[in-house]
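User: I'll paste a sequence; please echo it back and then give the predicted structure.

Assistant: Echoing your sequence first, then the prediction.
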Amino acid sequence: MAWDDVPGVISRHDGKLRNAGKRPLPPLDDLPFPVRDAEARHVLGIPCAPLLGSRGCYADCAFCCIYAYADSAEGARYHRRSPENIVGEMEREYSARGVRLFVFHDDNFFVPSPARNIERYTRLQDLLLARGMDDIALVIKCRPNDVHEELFALLKSMGMIRAYVGIETNSDEGVVGLNRRISPADNQRAVALLKRLDIYCSFNVLIFDPEATVEGAERNLGFMERHVDIPFNFCRAEVYAGTPLESILREQGRLRGNYLGWGYSMRSPRVELLFRIAATAFHGRNFKSDGVANLNMGLRFDNEVLRRFYPDAWDDQWHRRLVEFSRRVGNSSVTMMRDAHAFAGTVDLSRHGEIKRYAIELARRVGRSNLDLLREVKVLRLEMEDRMARLGHRWPAGPPGSPAPWAAETARLTTSVGSTASTEQLPAPPGAQP
């Protein structure tokens, strides 16, 4: 068979696209385990490995590339491995490479049935315990409607130390427009339950989407404000090829760009302005791997690794300090976003010069806050090292000359925040005044 006849391959011939048809999806248990010959990566000295217990997702959110990718194949959009097959791979990693931290990259760890989920993960727990694998930790991702007390208490007893919760939006128009099939009450209930169970979680909020309103942005900021002690990020709903969102915007004549990068303008000019201001001012904080948002999430995750594997180096007072740090990061972001929200909601949209000056000044404010928070990250990181070292635990060093995780961000902020801030993202409207 020629390579361009393989199902799932799309090729170009004489300037025309050729589609070889949908690829078939084999039963996941029939696939061989991944080849992992290299040494496992470490988190605080704990070997870790990624794995998948399922592929696809049962939901059909309008913006999600996972749904679109799975729908492009022949077969069910969501299918799972058996618990026996999953534990077979985990046992191999456990024995061959000493892995103790298993990071499940399932797009959704659950089906929409608490009873079936409890049955599945009770079986997984029994299989792990039968193999003596009771000294492990798990990381998962989930939708808010799948967070149930009995299920998550079970997962915590198995060693789950972190759950990423797909909040995505807390506004009414976002829930409908993005086809989330959940409610703001589901979001609140899920986060409140995880706090009560003392399970570390993080989330992202799509403040901006094609139908976002000023009032909806305020509701999203309100959700973030209620949970500033949990690491979070915020951004815009992006357009991915093959998604319902792409089709909707194309039909409406609002889709811009091409398959390398689609874009759009929000229906509300004031929300569009708020997005452009936020994208300029919060770029370093929200979207850099060494930005404050990611360092906050990473610091709290490492704290859970510390609690699970080095309990003698962890205590409640230390934990409360890290939660308080997350609260300062969250409050900082919400406070400055509320300021931008108020500005975007009242400014004369024709006064481009005023808007540009505000965006630059907000970027400077965020940059100054970033530097203060990065100093705190450094102090907390060094104390975490010291806590481990005092008790004889080894903190793995990076390659010689490796910068500390906060160093690159500090250097970046000293050059990119100022008159060169990317206000080119704010094109002057017709009739703009200087």
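The two ends are 63 Å apart (CA to CA). Confidence is low (pLDDT under 50) at residues 398-430.
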